Amino acid sequence: MEQISIMVFPCGSEIGLELHRALKDVRFITLYGASGAEDHGRCVYENYIGGIPFITDPAFVDALNEAIDRYRIQWIFPALDSVIAALSRVRDRLHAKLLTCADDAVQVCRSKARTYERLAGCDFLPGVYENPDAVPHYPVIIKPAEGQGSQGFMVIESREALLYELAQRNEAQVICEYLPGEEYTVDCFTDRHGEVRYASCRTRSRVKNGISVCSNLVPPDERVREIAEEINRRIPMRGVWFFQLKRSVSGEYRLLECATRVAGTMCLERAVGVNLPLLTLFDALDMDVEIAPQLSAASVDRALYNVFSLDLDYDEVYIDYDDTLIVKNRVNFTVLRFIYQCIERKIKVILLTRHETDVRQDMQAFRIFPGLFDGVICIPRSEKKTDHVSPSPKALFIDDSFAERDAMRRAFGITALGVDAVEALIDERQ
After folding, report:
1. What is the widest separation between alpha-carbon atoms in the chain?
2. In the list 104, 161, 323, 423, which could disulfide-bond 400, CB 3.0-4.6 Å?
């Protein structure tokens, strides 16, 4: 397959980061990340395009097209609900194609009110009340008519509280039945023939800032499949999309919302062998696809992680073995990854150790190839490491021992870091 260039915009959203993980290692995809505001995307996208105007800026389309032309972008994967809606409205003016549903589906799903209108009569809709006078009992919930996730969601316990909250909000609201049961996301894929090829249900066991950070796949449910197909019939989809369900007081599924995009926690589908963003690209290229999940059970738990930016320039690395590369009789994968990063960047790496037995033989026991290193220096325990090296002024020394690091710093004035700091040396832009 010929090389294909894809822009993810905005690339620093949770959706944009999931798209990066899903597509970065596909050999025929050149992936670009674009953003308006500086965000986490610049830390993970090797090809990063900053300074794109906000979607509300009159210059937005022209600036985006300029970037599309400069980098020869063929496809855009929108990565935020508001951006999907904005790009969809101007898709005829864009110099690249969108990897999302038709504009009708995009705009309907952007509005909960319009979604409920399009699905009127379906038995999986929650009770929706036109005004406070129509509410039969409390509690109820209110949420913005246009929005995503749990933004603006609130449980209301009384008529007085509802009237007060409605008066405080400037945008249109939807008043809905209160749903106390478990919440689910259903990750879907519809092919270009209009057939729902995939509908996988997972729990939203723990949610933080509207994002599912703990999720478990649940066994196939024919009722969930029926809901997916009815939504798809009334709101024709294409490619990746999802919807969210919650159980009512009686245990029945009720629809919360639909979205015409990738979900951040769709990583769980990738884990079982179903890459929905990649399938969406194949379908957009008018290719027939086969979907064959390899596992029926999986779970994911998500948390913040660190990406560092250091004012550090080094041209060679001296690194310890015991308690640095090998810790508690196990390979330190972070250190090993850093070594390979140095090799890729043609930075010399020298093993400097007081290991008491044959270090090369012991490395082979851990399946570590001694040829990873540009040199292996073994010194007697009674001698100083500083007496066996002549580091460059920009050398980096890594050792678990503070005394060793301090001696190296004092002797040569070079940067000396502990094994706990190696995490900060990893470049995620790969």
Report:
1. 86
2. 323
**Two tokens, residue 170:** 């400037």
pLDDT at residue 415 in the model = 97
Q: How does DSSP classify residue 54?
A: P
Q: What is the DSSP string of 96-114?
A: SEESS--HHHHHHHHBHHH
- Position 148 scores a pLDDT of 59
User: For strand 326-327 and strand 330-331, is the pairing parallel, antiparallel, or unpaired?
Assistant: antiparallel
**CA–CA distances in Å: residue 322 to residues 116, 270, 407:** 62, 36, 18
Identity of residue 247: R
Range of 170's domain?
A: 127-177
Same domain, 165 and 186: no
- List strand residue ranges (DSSP E) for 168-210, in order: 173-177, 183-190, 196-203, 206-208
pLDDT of residue 69: 98
From start to end of 138-182, where are the E strands?
140-144, 154-156, 173-177
121 domain-assigned: no
pTM: 0.89
Same domain, 191 and 291: yes
Q: Say if residue 270 is in the same domain as residue 233.
A: yes
Give the list of residues 6+ apart from residue 210 with CB closer than 8 angstroms, or none.
148, 149, 150, 151
Q: What is the domain-level CATH number for residue 18?
A: 3.40.50.720
Joined tokens for residue 339: 């070594």
Residue ranges for the chain with pLDDT beneath 50: none
Place of tokens 């994911």: 300
Q: Which of 241, 273, 301 is the last residue of a domain?
A: 301
Say how many domains are in the chain.
Answer: 4
- What is the per-residue pLDDT for 402? 96
Asked if 380 and 391 sit in the same domain, the reply is yes
CA 148 – CA 242 distance, rounded (Å): 12
Residues 238 and 146 in one domain: no
C-beta of residue 103 within 8 angstroms of C-beta of residue 91: yes
Q: Are 8 and 75 in contact (CB under 8 A)?
A: no
